[in-house]
Amino acid sequence: MTATLETRGLHVSFGRTPVLRDVNVTVPAHTAVGLVGESGSGKSTLGKTVVGINTPRQGQVLVHGEDVFAVSRRRRAAMRRQVQYIPQDPFSSLSPRRTVGQTLAEALDPVRARPADHEEAIVHALEQVRLDAGAMRKYPHQFSGGQRQRIAIARALVVQPRLVIADEITSALDVSVQAEIVALLRSLERTMEASLLFISHNLAVVQALCEHVVVMYRGAIVEQGRVDDVYRDPKHDYTRTLLASVPGSEGFHLD
What we know:
The protein is α/β, with parallel strands linked by helices. Helices cover 36% and strands 24% of the residues. The protein has one domain: 3-Layer(aba) Sandwich (Rossmann fold). It has helices at residues 43-50, 73-82, 90-93, 100-108, 119-128, 145-157, 175-189, 203-209, 227-232, 237-245; strands spanning 5-14, 17-27, 32-36, 58-63, 66-67, 83-86, 163-167, 195-199, 212-217, 220-226. The protein has a six-stranded mixed sheet, with helices on both faces. The longest helix has 15 residues, at 175-189.
């Protein structure tokens, strides 16, 4: 079976500064993969490169076997719809001038963005993240941080993507809300067709949510494998340091 996402020999630089070095990552179909490492390790850069925000200096980004950077502009636009990115701060990514319904309609139809044309799909996406249909008519400031994160997840799901990239989406939330979002994602994993690349510095959250883990250090992959195997028997010194320094947030644990 073709992987949902595969990067091959990916190099990304900002100016003359290398940020990603020979990154090879595979996200199998219908699988949650955690991408961990300290701040500045290159995790978010990798996620933004996959969705086309950054352009690689060298290497390939394959979505279901197609190289995102080797296809026509029209095809690339269609492929980007298949890969949805959820940022860390949903408030800054949600327009304060648009209702939730307009925001989700824009994801479905960027030209007209009329909620009435897509009401069934929008309501279904909101129900998936446990928000009622009335949320369509409200604005982002009328919701809590956890609810705004649910809206951001709904915006990603409404287009029925093949891959969802969640970039530190629990880090700004308090522990109880963080646990709710993780529980929601675990529930969604059982029903949605998409794979998940979950970017986080929280190893305990990754353990609770993901089947596989990829460890990044200074722009390179130093270790990857099944979560339980890597956590139980880390092979790289950096992975051992990470595991030793992060005991896990309240409500989670590292076995």
